[in-house]
């Protein structure tokens, strides 16, 4: 996605833009219904004289929608997805694009279907509502809006097909409205069947939608406490994600990883995509972490799944050993290595860290250009050995390894003024001015010198310190 496409996408995702489009949709539907109503009056009447003005206003609103659709098409990297999402809107503006379509009553009725788009707008902006409103009111409002839409569409269609008939008395606006309402509730044409074939087809459609809406209402009420409602507010458009973190696989370590990332950025935005093959969302214990994590069901070794998660726009990819489904540790390592190599091939700029059980396989990760790897079985053994040889050491390690309390390790870039300084000088200055302990120097060529006896800071070097917060050296 190019830069100007991102700017357009962010513009259309703004709440005020979505609400403005919703107002225009309601205005367009109102103008269309008014056009149907005024067309039923006798020629030469005051209502008929207002009809050209209504048609002009509706045409101007449709021109705004045409411009909007053209901009959305330009901002959408996938034309197929654009036509899949906005085909109803394209049909709705067809009468304005082709004057011949405007003369066809069916095409004018199609413009009323534009109100379906309001459901998508409500779905996208409902996260701005209070939580108690989001939990159930949106579903009920959707059902009510669908019912209202069908009443409006039925009224307009009956006016279009039954309003002016050559062989029988036309139907009034009031009769068309109550026909739609009664038919949806009663399940049969009330007070009687329409006279034209087109009107009868519309009545059958109204009856069918009445039963459908009743089933939807019943299902919404019965499913209010289902898991789907608990996670609906965290749905994410993966195509819009940028600078996010992808976690491939699932085990109990993922919860700790998410908690640590959140603790490191308590005030900043954070989005983490977890790719897992679970049929449902894995149990996340801390509720405060749930808004920052979205789950993508799929196989993280597949290229299509990684692309769907936005691997080309991610900054970090963490691959954990996933033994779900009865996989052995060897199978889990093979999948981790395959996923890591695939990620590096798809996006060499992403920082990749992979977890494996067997350290013998680490050479494959190094040869594939993977930035870091963790041998989980070895590190746990190291910690157990240190805790027995240096008693009480685990308290120190526990504090240093978490961002949620105390001091942590930080990698810090050095300004130009620190170049040429010795390790000892830099150690004392950081302790006195920043209350930080210098642990190691990370050389520009990738070499790491831990607690060196001597040495100077060179251009491109970074340091590793122990501090209570990240240093901002200037």
UniProtKB/TrEMBL annotation:
The keyword DNA-binding does not apply. Its main location: membrane. It is a multi-pass membrane protein. It is found in: Membrane. The chain crosses the membrane at residues 21-41, 53-74, 140-161, 201-226. Pfam families: Ion_trans, Slo-like_RCK. It comes from the Bacteria. Keywords: Ion channel, Ion transport, Membrane, Transmembrane, Transmembrane helix, Transport. Signal peptide: none annotated. The keyword Membrane applies. GO terms for biological process: potassium ion transport. PANTHER family: POTASSIUM CHANNEL PROTEIN 2-RELATED-RELATED, POTASSIUM CHANNEL PROTEIN YUGO-RELATED. This is BK channel. It comes from Lignipirellula cremea.
């Amino acid at each position: 996605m190019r830069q100007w496409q991102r700017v357009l996408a962010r513009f259309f995702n703004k709440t005020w833009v979505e609400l403005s489009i919703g107002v225009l949709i309601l205005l367009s539907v109102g103008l269309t219904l008014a056009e149907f109503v005024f067309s039923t009056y006798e020629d030469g009447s005051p209502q008929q004289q207002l009809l050209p003005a209504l048609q002009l206003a509706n045409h101007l609103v449709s021109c705004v929608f045409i411009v909007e659709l053209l901009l959305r098409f330009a901002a959408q990297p996938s034309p197929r997805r654009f036509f899949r999402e906005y085909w109803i809107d394209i049909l709705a503006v067809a009468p304005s694009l082709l004057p011949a379509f405007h003369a066809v009553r069916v095409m004018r009725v199609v413009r009323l279907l534009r109100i379906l788009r309001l459901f998508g707008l409500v779905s996208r902006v409902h996260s701005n509502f209070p939580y108690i409103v989001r939990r159930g009111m949106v579903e009920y409002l959707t059902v009510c809006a669908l019912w209202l839409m069908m009443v409006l569409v039925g009224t307009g269609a009956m006016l279009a097909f039954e309003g002016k008939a050559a062989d029988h008395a036309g139907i009034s606006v009031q009769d068309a409205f109550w026909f739609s309402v009664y038919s949806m509730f009663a399940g049969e044409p009330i007070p009687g069947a329409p006279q034209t074939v087109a009107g009868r087809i519309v009545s059958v459609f109204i009856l069918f939608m009445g039963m459908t809406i009743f089933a939807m209402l019943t299902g919404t009420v019965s499913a209010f406490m289902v898991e789907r409602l608990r996670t609906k507010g965290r749905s994410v458009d993966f195509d819009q994600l940028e600078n996010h973190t992808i976690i491939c696989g699932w085990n109990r370590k993922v919860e700790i990883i998410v908690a640590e990332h959140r603790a490191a950025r308590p005030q900043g935005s954070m989005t983490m995509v977890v790719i897992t093959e679970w049929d449902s969302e894995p149990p996340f214990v801390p509720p405060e972490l749930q808004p920052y994590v979205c789950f993508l069901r799929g196989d993280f070794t597949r290229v299509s799944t990684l692309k769907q998660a936005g691997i080309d726009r991610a900054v970090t990819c963490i691959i954990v050993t996933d033994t779900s489904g009865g996989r052995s540790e060897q199978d889990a390592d093979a999948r981790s290595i395959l996923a890591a190599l695939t990620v590096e091939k798809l996006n060499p700029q992403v920082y990749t860290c992979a977890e494996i059980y067997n350290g013998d396989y680490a050479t494959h990760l190094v040869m594939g250009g993977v930035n870091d790897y963790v041998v989980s079985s070895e590190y746990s053994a190291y910690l157990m050995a240190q805790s027995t040889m240096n008693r009480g050491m685990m308290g120190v390690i526990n504090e240093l390894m978490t961002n949620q309390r105390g001091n942590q390790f930080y990698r810090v870039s050095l300004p130009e003024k620190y170049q040429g300084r010795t390790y000892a000088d830099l150690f004392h200055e950081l302790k006195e001015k920043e209350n930080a302990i210098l642990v190691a120097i990370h050389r520009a060529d990738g070499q790491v010198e831990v607690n060196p006896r001597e040495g100077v800071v060179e251009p491109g070097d970074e340091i590793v310190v122990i501090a209570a917060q990240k240093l901002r050296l200037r």
